[in-house]
Amino acid sequence: MDPEEIRERLRRGRDFLRPDMDEDTGYVSDQQLKKPQPPLTKAAMTDTAIDLPKDFSSLPVNHDFLNVINSRASHRVYTKEPMSLTELSYILWCTQGVKEIRGRSYATLRTVPCGGARHEFETYMAVMNVTGLTPGIYHYLPMTQQIELLSEPRDLKTFAGESLLGQNWAARADVIFYYSVVNYRAEWRYGIHAHRIILIDAGHITENLYLAATSIGMGSCAIGAVNGRLCDEVIGLDGEEEFTIYAHVLGKTDTADREKEQVFYAFVKEQNL
Ligand SMILES: Cc1cc2nc3c(=O)[nH]c(=O)nc-3n(C[C@H](O)[C@H](O)[C@H](O)COP(=O)(O)O)c2cc1C
Asked: Which residue from 68, 168, 208, 223 has its CB within 8 A of the most atoms of ligand 1, so it is best to mutate?
């Protein structure tokens, strides 16, 4: 890429980040135009819905909030221990669970905050090691606390590494979450300003995932380096109205693996950074 193009890309990136909602552009959103709002969540894509446990009382949840905050960290080394369906349900609930509907069907109120309560994300999963679940690609149905099996790709573990741009350690995880954005859900309200808000919103989901995982003694790692096109293709997204933007890897950890975790940051010592 030539330096001028790089400068231009950087400038566009910075402009995208700048809040410009106070500028008088004369822009009118579809909500202001009273156009019908899009569905609050994506409908089931199959008829394979599986009920998830809603009672989390069997989980040894750490209720010491400050301890959970202080022990949150990224984990990239996992044991082969499977996670339970209740643990998976707990993580899904803590990251995108629907607590209430605002109005008749104006918005969902969830366990995470979101600009205008648009909740423009869908959660997909590569389930590799969850007791009772066939390995495959799943979709979370937050209105009913269910998941549906979308497909059973032959080499899920290869997909795991390739979908995260060669981060092959993720193939040892129990589950990889892939977050897509259904753009119009946010654009209906925020229009040309929606996309900056979408990225801010995405952060809340994975922070809750980190904290939820920590609270039940599991390890996880947020992932920005995603092969979006591959994820869209394998999950079955159109790549325009809805596409993958973010991922999060989750698995069981063992304190005996602490040294192996350090290997990911060995370069800091080697290069005396
Ligand atoms: C938006 C975002 C993207 C990230 N992408 C990756 C990634 O692609 N690969 C990875 O190994 N870690 C990734 N991480 C984890 C960070 O490297 C990690 O949070 C950081 O090194 C600080 O470590 P800590 O989470 O243990 O505090 C990402 C974290 C965030 C929040």
From this structure: 223
